[in-house]
């Protein structure tokens, strides 16, 4: 499989180059040159365990890693000790199914992709030589999942900046309790925007970037989307069978959405022939994407703070991939749309004859009140505690009406990461706990506090990298 850019101005490249490139050199996003039709494999794939399935689904998109090597990468990423209780256990709760994607090391669904990506980086660097120094800014969850993806790996360092005192204590500790030599946490005396500005300045300094082999693990890396396609197959099989063992039917997925990476993976799975009849896109009050799928207009509004911080996003970094296909896979049209968006913070697509943007993607939003109500309801009626992100997905699924369909809601974080919201919703303390979270407060930490100053951050990185080489 070759990879091309949505903007059409990069020569086709192989999978490994796509993984290292992240963002395409022409500013677009990398996508596979074609989408494989796997319909004929469905009945065989249904019988496989998660690792077997992951290997087969992803192999469709990779032909520059020998199968035995890729098999080893998958086995390592999805080892039992990494995902206690399975990668994507799918359980019946009330009238719907919950696919729990939070069994990984940081208790959030980003682990599913970043555990694979870390192992892919390690493999590619060991084959090709060289090193990779990952630089990131985080307001919370992505930082810890990225750190866990590469901790202890040869030839890789990771520098993650977070705003000092402005992430939740749990989120900060999930990062700073990782003591591996290749992990460097920086607490910046500033806001998340300051951290991002520092990162952009460093990443934009091409000389610095080349000298120190800087890279990113941002959400547009194709390998992250790829890893997420797998659980749509997995959960559609598991829920379909539980609903009707003898004759499993296609299912619908409800997906709590921020950067559009997760639901895009579901869209690819659907295109490939997974038994999926439709997708439900759920946002919080930051609803640019639900507005888009209801009206065809994609226009930026202010970001507001909600109980589901990982979905507090306006411009969705993966949206360009979907837009490309929606514009008829026309690079020229896509370039024009993105240019217009850059200038006016707004773009539109013409609606289909049925008046919809996409017959197979319905969308809705969930308010803070909805989130608290649904958390309380699922706790009281089903003794099941949802986190605030997953609660958005369940709320919107219920708004749409279940219609006797088999609906799978993706649960993207463990509720123990958000104790305050759970307490607000249920009035009870200590409902959602997890041994890994409880342990955090007693573990030693390592973190460098730095002022919001580009030169001091740069010097810190340089010193650490020198220290490692000596
Ligand atoms: C990142 C994240 C999301 C949003 O996923 P996207 O791929 O950005 O749409 C939802 N829930 C949680 C807990 C997350 O960390």
Q: Residue-averaged pLDDT, rounded?
A: 94
Q: Find the structural class using helix and strand composition.
A: alpha/beta
Spatial order of the strands forming the largest sheet:
3-4-14-9-10-13
Which geometry do the CA atoms define? globular
Number of helices: 19
For the terminal residues, how far apart are their CA atoms?
40 Å
Helix content: 40-55%
Q: Biggest sheet: strands, sense, closure?
A: 6 strands, mixed
Based on DSSP secondary structure assignment, what is the total number of beta strands? 15
Low-confidence stretches: none
Rg of Cα set: 21 Å
Bound molecules: pyridoxal-5'-phosphate
Please report which band the strand proportion falls in: under 5%, 5-15%, 15-25%, 25-35%, 35-45% or over 45%.
Answer: 15-25%
């Amino acid at each position: 499989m070759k990879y091309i850019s949505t903007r059409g101005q990069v020569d086709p490249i192989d999978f490994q180059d796509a993984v290292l490139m992240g963002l395409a050199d022409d500013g677009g996003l990398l996508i596979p040159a074609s989408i494989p039709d796997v319909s004929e494999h469905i009945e065989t794939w249904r019988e496989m365990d998660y690792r077997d399935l992951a290997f087969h689904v992803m192999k469709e998109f990779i032909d520059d890693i020998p199968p035995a090597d890729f098999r080893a990468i998958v086995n390592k990423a999805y080892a039992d000790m990494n995902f206690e209780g399975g990668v994507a256990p799918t359980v019946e709760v009330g009238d719907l199914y919950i696919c729990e994607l939070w069994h990984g090391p940081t208790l959030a669904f980003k682990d599913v992709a970043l555990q694979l990506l870390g192992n892919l980086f390690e493999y590619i660097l060991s084959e090709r030589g060289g090193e990779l120094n990952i630089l990131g800014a985080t307001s919370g969850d992505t930082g810890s999942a990225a750190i866990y993806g590469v901790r202890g790996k040869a030839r890789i360092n990771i520098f993650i900046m977070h705003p000092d005192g402005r992430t939740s204590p749990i989120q900060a500790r999930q990062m700073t309790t990782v003591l591996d030599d290749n992990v460097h946490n920086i607490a910046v005396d500033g806001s998340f925007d300051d951290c991002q500005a520092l990162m952009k300045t460093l990443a934009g300094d091409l000389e610095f970037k080349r000298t120190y082999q800087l890279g990113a693990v941002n959400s547009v890396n194709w390998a992250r989307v790829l890893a997420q396609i797998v659980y749509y197959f997995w959960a559609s099989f598991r829920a379909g069978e539980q609903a009707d063992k003898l004759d499993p039917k296609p299912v619908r997925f409800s997906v709590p959405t921020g950067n559009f990476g997760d639901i895009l993976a579901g869209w690819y799975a659907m295109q490939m022939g997974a038994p999926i009849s439709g997708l439900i896109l759920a946002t919080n009050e930051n609803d640019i994407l639900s507005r888009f799928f209801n009206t065809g207009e994609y226009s930026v509004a202010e970001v507001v703070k909600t109980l589901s911080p990982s979905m507090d996003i306006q411009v969705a970094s993966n949206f360009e991939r979907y837009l490309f296909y929606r514009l008829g896979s026309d690079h020229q049209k896509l370039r024009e749309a993105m240019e217009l968006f850059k200038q006016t913070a707004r773009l539109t697509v013409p609606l289909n004859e049925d008046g919809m943007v996409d017959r197979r993607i319905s969308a809705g939003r969930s308010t803070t009140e909805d989130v608290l109500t649904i958390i309380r309801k699922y706790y009281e009626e089903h003794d099941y505690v949802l986190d605030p992100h997953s609660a958005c997905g369940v709320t919107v699924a219920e708004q749409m009406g279940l219609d006797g369909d088999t609906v799978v809601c993706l649960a993207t974080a463990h509720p123990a990461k958000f104790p305050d919201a759970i307490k607000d919703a249920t009035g009870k303390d200590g409902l959602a706990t997890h041994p890994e979270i409880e342990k955090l407060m007693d573990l030693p930490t390592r973190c460098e506090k730095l002022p919001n100053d580009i030169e001091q951050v740069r010097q810190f990185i340089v010193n650490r990298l020198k220290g490692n080489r000596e």
